[in-house]
Amino acid sequence: MSTNTARHEQLLGQLDRFLHESEQILAAWDAYSDEHTDTDGWPLHPDAYGRRAAQRDAETWQAFDQVRGGAEELLAKAEAELRRIPPALARSCWPWELGVLRTALEQIDNLQQQWQTTRETLPRNAVPGTDAYDDTIGERDEEAWHPLNEWREHGRALLDIHATLQHAPALRQALTRRHTATPPDSPPTQGPGPRPRA
After folding, report:
1. What does each C-alpha distance from 44 to 29, 40, 108, 118, 157 come to in angstroms?
2. In the chain, which residue ranges form alpha helices assigned H by DSSP?
3. Which terminus of the chain has fewer Cβ atoms in its 10 Å neighbourhood, N or C?
4. Alpha-carbon gap, residue 159 to 11, rounded angstroms
């Protein structure tokens, strides 16, 4: 296995872990939300509900941290792989999903850059655990929730594109065999015509 291949497999593994962890985070949030809202969907205890939402946002950001450094590389690789997949094996939604992921990644990167700029303006005693520091982190995580959720919903397309390309020869052979196994219907054979009269 080449260095590039090993690197890509590592990034795909990190993406797979993010998808698994983010699903668990969302399931835990949904369970909490169902239990702590009234029949109209309003929080029973708004302050506690807000803190729990902030926890969800922070956990999702932390889960994506293992992917963020290689996300651009994953997208570029998937775009190149998609061009090599025979049209008969590609899903029509994949180009759209790659566009959604790219837009979401740009939003996440912009939010990170904005937070780094804001952090530089904080007083020196604004360290993790202080309100000044934690509030800026919370704002970043809250705004990142939607694009991070886009990666949770559509990130598997990167794994599926890679898997399809890896198995494309076998899939193409199976598709060819399926089309050739059933020959077109032949026209009915006519029997002998009526015997001429003597």
Report:
1. 15, 11, 31, 34, 38
2. 3-35, 46-68, 71-84, 94-121, 131-154, 156-166, 168-181
3. C
4. 10
Task: Report the phi/psi class of residue 41: left, alpha or beta, with left for phi > 0 and alpha for psi in -120 to 50.
Answer: left
Q: How far apart are CA 10 and CA 70, in angstroms?
A: 10
Output the six-digit token pair for 116.
């780094």
DSSP 167: T
Task: Give the burial class of 61: count Cβ atoms within 10 A of its Cβ; 0-12 exposed, 13-18 middle, 19 or more buried.
Answer: buried
How far is the C-alpha of 108 from the C-alpha of 157, rounded, in Å? 19
User: Count of residues for the chain?
Assistant: 198
Interval 126-171: pLDDT, tens: 999 999 999 999 999 999 999 999 999 999 999 999 999 998 776 5
